[in-house]
Amino acid sequence: MIIIFGAGGFIGTYLTSQLAADGHQVLACDVGEIGEAFYARERIPFRRINVTMKSDFAQLPTERIEAVVNLACVQPANVSEQAYDPADYIRVNVLGTLNILDFCRAHNVPKIIYTCSHRNTQGMWERKDGTAIRESDGRSIKFTGDYAMFSISESAAADCVEHFAQTYGLEGVVLRLPPVYGYGPHTEIFKDGKPLKTGFQIFIESAERGLPIELWGDSSRGRDIVYVKDVVAAMQLALATPGIGGEYNISSGRRLSLQEQAETIVRVFSRAGHTSEIRTNLEKANFIESYFYDIEKARRAFGWFPKYSFEDMLIDYRREMESGRFAYLVEKRRKQMQGAV
């Protein structure tokens, strides 16, 4: 059995559904009732687990557990200005991870997969030599802004995974992720605690309606992103590969420029005869921070590389959107934005 904590989230939903479809015995765990309702419909076993409460772990099986995946976390995109409490990051991201690690140690679980945001390398972005960020480059946390406590807490959690790996022989794999795209939570986010429709969503809606798309500032600037299904594939390979551990960058391995993003969205989402015009406004800044990651370590260790180009991703994104199978993620995001989750 594979236990997935945070299975009611974006990546957790895609991962749990894919593992179940591939015939794995999985147990979905999450704190929210929205995820519980989804997994009941999918007929996938589910437990309401708050990772900060050790007593909740008594609901879990204790034998024949192949691995756990920890995706349970607090992140700024889901936290409003009114709900912000830095202690939440420590309680969920650090103490929650420690509780999961203690469960693994107590019940001889051989492997844990933990995901960590790339935000803990923020001081290395905008490299003047244009080189990719490697795992061996370490961290460079920005200690101000709405991602500070997130980066601090996730880095501490990753260190806890490594501590348990070295002390108790647990295979601890940390996958470091840049922005992960996919159908579900990309309509709106909280930015500095305030609700904001994402530029990605604005571009798609404009292309669907044949409206102009305005690019601000230098549209050649770009960043590294990765598709959720490539992340899921990395997790599947990491779960299946024995004897690995440590941190791995999981990304596209290249910069996607703002211009490329807009042109591809127009190509995929515009209706025939109603192609959106792309305009450039140099008087407004786009605030895009430039970075990309070296992904060779993951390829060598467990044979992973991204299979989806940005255009492939958008085509599949549209297919998932039209299928409606993960529509509950959009509903969950709507409730988060309204403060109901």
Describe this structure in words.
The protein is an alpha/beta fold and 341 residues long. The chain has a single domain, classed as 3-Layer(aba) Sandwich (Rossmann fold), CATH 3.40.50. The chain is built from ten helices and 15 strands. The strands form five sheets. Strands 3-2-1-4-5-6-13 form a seven-stranded parallel beta sheet, with helices on both faces. Strands 7-12 form a two-stranded parallel sheet. The model has no long low-confidence stretch (mean pLDDT 92).
Mean pLDDT: 92
> In DSSP terms, counting alpha (H) and pi (I) runs of 4 or more, how many helices?
10
How many DSSP-defined strands?
A: 15
CATH T-level fold name: Rossmann fold
- CATH H-level name... which superfamily? NAD(P)-binding Rossmann-like Domain
Q: If classified by CATH, what would the architecture be?
A: 3-Layer(aba) Sandwich
Q: Identify the quaternary structure here.
A: single chain
How do the helices and strands follow one another from N- to C-terminus? EHEHEEHEHEEEEHEEEHEEHEHHH
Radius of gyration: 20 Å
**How far from one another are the termini?**
29 Å
Low-confidence segments, given as residue ranges, are none
Strand fraction equals 15-25%
Which CATH class?
Alpha Beta
Find the structural class using helix and strand composition: alpha/beta
Q: Quickly count the domains.
A: 1
Strand arrangement, major sheet: 3-2-1-4-5-6-13
